[in-house]
Design a protein that fits this description.
heterodimer; A: 245 residues; alpha+beta; Gyrase A, domain 2; 2 domains; 7-stranded mixed beta barrel; 4-stranded antiparallel beta sheet; B: 280 residues; mainly beta; Cyclophilin; 9-stranded antiparallel beta sheet; 18 strands; elongated; Sensor histidine kinase inhibitor, KipI family (chain A)
């Protein structure tokens, strides 16, 4: 822990940005998450501060007060280097069902042509990997999932679609993700997930947290329809396993 | 209840915003022109976080079912209380059945209507601010209604504030350096601070774009947090200024950060209006 060099910069007067080396690495992400837990426990009240981890950065936002950068920066550096007891991160592996039918995976053909692999190979590759949630943003409940197999790397679509349907599973660059609601979007859509990614009425509106793991498993169209109804009426049982980092 | 007879172009309910859910990708939302709303809530001796109607461009027609007191602020619009013109930043008493109707937009683009005690819809995730899909709708609809508490007696300490139009007409946005500011080169800096920018037609509660471009940016960065008031520079040299409903993360360099005051100033600008950036 605290093994990387960090840089701290002001971000307006309500936020401060802490950055780790520019790398997509689980070790860096976990170090950020451990630092968040430590800050919440000892130094920064959760009712006053927001903690936004993403890839190699942590943004700390204070809604009400103005941040005195000159005071907070050295404190953060000191806290980062302070000797800490080991932190246990509570992380889960979530198994999410995806229907990879071309009816929903509207870019499957294009992805197949572009990468020179069959639908079956795309499905096998996409559902075999275990992904890490590196960030949540863009839309409520939109997770940036890292760990896409290299054979599936494909650029974003040159022109974004005006409407991508809720649940659509997309790939772009080194990432995959699920659209939590209907929205414009530029990722290549290869399937649809029946689980609702964001529910404002729930105590935890977004069940996935940064640092969690995700694995997809293929389901048929009939299973998709069934799970979707189960999910809408709230009886769908999520598959989650405790994950030891 | 406040009855929405006609909703107008884009009318929403907003308080100071929805905090503590940005780590789930939920934008802050909340009133765009915080300076105007602070004055309204102060006049009504409300809490600063009390919810008001944010009225954009073409205003609504509204009727009140219970007595209360109201105050308006922000953009200058022709507003009539039972056919008599009323003005911004003054407390008016409302009787049961009174009708408030909005006419021509004169200056600015967002007007605010506050009621004594604020609107009392059920907060969702700690806020009454409209933002779909957190709230069911993204704006109020015709023939719906919004709840507020009855108030018959209220002796305001101040009944009217003199507010000149200079805030609405301000052309300078005061900004801080953004996290990626240091990566700009001299050409870009010169363009950024010596160009008079004009608001593009793509302007709303999520983001304001501008018509002019500056030299683009080729460095790619990892997705990281963004805030209301973050100015992003795209590879094509477009500037995107995130506003209250703006996304919570982004992958474009964050070159500037608007001050709270600058967000309020920009939120009264409409397509074609001009402004410049000035470093604090």
């Amino acid at each position: 822990m605290s093994s990387h060099k960090i840089s701290i910069r002001p971000f307006g007067i309500h936020a401060i940005l802490v950055e780790w080396p520019v790398k997509i690495e689980e070790a860096i992400l976990n170090e950020i998450l451990e630092f968040v837990q430590y800050l919440k426990k000892y130094h920064l009240k959760e009712t006053a501060w927001e903690f936004i981890p993403a890839y190699n950065s942590l943004t700390l936002i204070c809604r009400d007060a103005e941040i005195d950068f000159g005071v907070l920066k050295p404190k953060l550096e000191e806290w980062y280097l302070a000797k800490k007891e080991p932190v246990l991160l509570e992380q889960y592996l979530w198994r999410l069902p995806v229907c990879y039918d071309a009816e929903y995976g509207v870019d499957l053909q294009e992805v197949s042509d572009h990468l020179g692999i069959s639908f079956q190979e795309i499905i096998k590759l996409h559902s075999s990997a275990i992904y890490t949630v590196y960030g949540i943003g863009f839309l409520p409940g939109f997770t940036y999932l890292g760990g896409l197999p290299e054979a599936l790397e494909i650029p974003r679509k040159p022109v974004p679609r005006a409407k991508v349907f809720k649940g659509s599973v997309g790939i772009a660059g080194k990432q995959t993700g699920i659209y939590p609601q209907d929205s414009p979007g530029g990722w290549n859509i290869i399937g649809i997930c029946s689980v609702s990614m964001f529910d404002a009425k729930s105590k935890t509106p977004c069940f996935l947290k940064v640092g969690d793991k995700v694995q997809f498993y293929p389901i048929s169209k009939a299973e998709y329809q069934l799970h979707k109804i189960e999910s809408e009426v709230g009886i769908y049982k999520m598959e989650k396993l405790k994950w030891d980092a | 209840m406040l009855n929405i007879i006609k909703a107008g172009f884009f009318t929403t309910l907003q308080d100071q915003g929805r905090f503590l859910f940005r780590n789930m990708g939920v934008p802050v939302s909340g009133v765009m022109d915080t300076m105007a709303v602070s004055k309204i809530n102060a006049l009504l001796e409300n809490d600063d976080n009390d919810a008001v109607l944010e009225i954009t461009m073409t205003g609504p027609v509204l009727s009140f079912e219970e007595p209360t007191f109201i105050a308006l602020g922000g953009a200058e619009m022709a507003v009539f209380l039972n056919d008599l013109p009323i003005r911004n930043y003054r407390v008016y008493q409302i009787k049961k059945g009174d009708v408030l109707s909005y006419g021509k937009l004169e200056n600015g683009i967002r007007n605010y209507l506050g009621v004594k005690g604020g609107f009392t819809t059920e907060p969702i995730l700690g806020s009454r601010s409209f933002y779909k899909p957190v709230t069911q709708h993204n704006s109020v609809k015709d023939h719906t209604s919004l709840p507020y508490g009855i108030c018959k007696d209220f002796k305001p300490k101040i009944t009217e504030l003199k507010v000149d139009a200079s805030i609405i007409e301000a052309k300078v946005l005061k900004v801080y350096k953004g996290p990626e500011f240091q990566q700009l080169h001299p050409n870009q800096l010169e363009q950024l601070f010596y160009t008079e920018f004009s608001v593009a037609k793509e302007n709303n509660r999520m983001a304001y774009q501008v018509n002019e471009t500056i030299e683009g940016y080729q460095v790619s960065m990892l997705t990281s947090a963004t805030l209301p008031g973050t100015v992003q520079l795209t590879p094509a040299g477009k500037l995107i200024i995130l506003m209250k409903d703006g996304q919570t993360t982004g992958g474009y360099p964050r070159i500037l950060q608007l001050s709270d005051e600058a967000i309020a100033v920009l939120s009264q600008k409409k397509s074609g209006d001009h402004f410049t950036f000035k470093l604090i």
